[in-house]
Amino acid sequence: MHVDSNLVTHDTHTRTADSQNPPHSSTNNIHTTPMQEQPQQQQQQQHQQQHAHGVLIAKPCLITAASETKVQAEQEKEKEPLCLENATPDAVPLHLREMLSQFGHRKLSAAELLMLLIYLVALESGFVENQSYLEKRSLLKPVPAVGCFHLFNVRLLSHLPTHYTREFEDTAFRMLLRTLLDSKSAQEPPLMTALQSSLIAIVLGDLMVVTLSPVAPSKERGFSTCLSIGRFVLNVQLEPIYQRFCKLDELSLQLRQNLFQPMRAQQLLALDLHPHPSLLGLPSEVYDEIFKHLNKNQLNILANVNWKLCNYKKQFKDRRPH
């Protein structure tokens, strides 16, 4: 049988090539797997590093944003007026907003809104509604005779419901006030009546007549003033409601000068507490030294100032050598 030499030669070369280039074993496959996974691990490490860098970059941004927000809040707080006389159409004291928030969506008349403003000026002048005083007197800060405005007291009391009576279809409002003093004076029961006063507001057309009088049995005089409702509370529906208020500095000044400061001074003088320097409360020796330089006519003028100076003049006349 004849065999083709070309076929034999081809088969021999094929087997020789196969023996020189054996197929990949399982061991070779194990060694190639890490080489294939290494790029993936590098990608994961790079992704984690990028994520970590992203967090590091984001934190300063968050801190910066928080600090900016805090600074803005502090700046807005500094711009916020502390009392009613410094209020503007865009910025009002916090205690005014707190008091108005108690009424929710209840519709308030212009006269009742003005009554609330009057009470806020009373709070800023060292007065408080009597029932609120009884509820929170243990938390109130002492108010010295030489001062009247205490921000802590004003903001604390503005959170409480405002107690007042409405009469004759909201044409008359009545409220019992109590004057705040220092801690020692406030704890004395006999002073409760002497430090109380009755606030009454009566609506007469477009005007509101406000009186502040001592309660019985005091025989001291009262004080009154007349307010134009439309001058301080606009007759329009605006939101927020405090945008209806205007000329609050004028309202505060008028109420302080005509009602609250005279009443507070009168009550303090009755208790021998002097809110400001005066001729009252001096030692008798000082009065003798002053009076001896005055003639008879001047002494009579001085005695007509008030009943205390009149008594001092009589005592000096008795002690004066003839």
From TrEMBL:
Residues 1-51 are annotated as: Disordered. Residues 17-35 have a biased composition (Polar residues). It comes from the Eukaryota. Residues 36-49 have a biased composition (Low complexity). This is Uncharacterized protein, isoform B. The gene is Dvir\GJ12952.
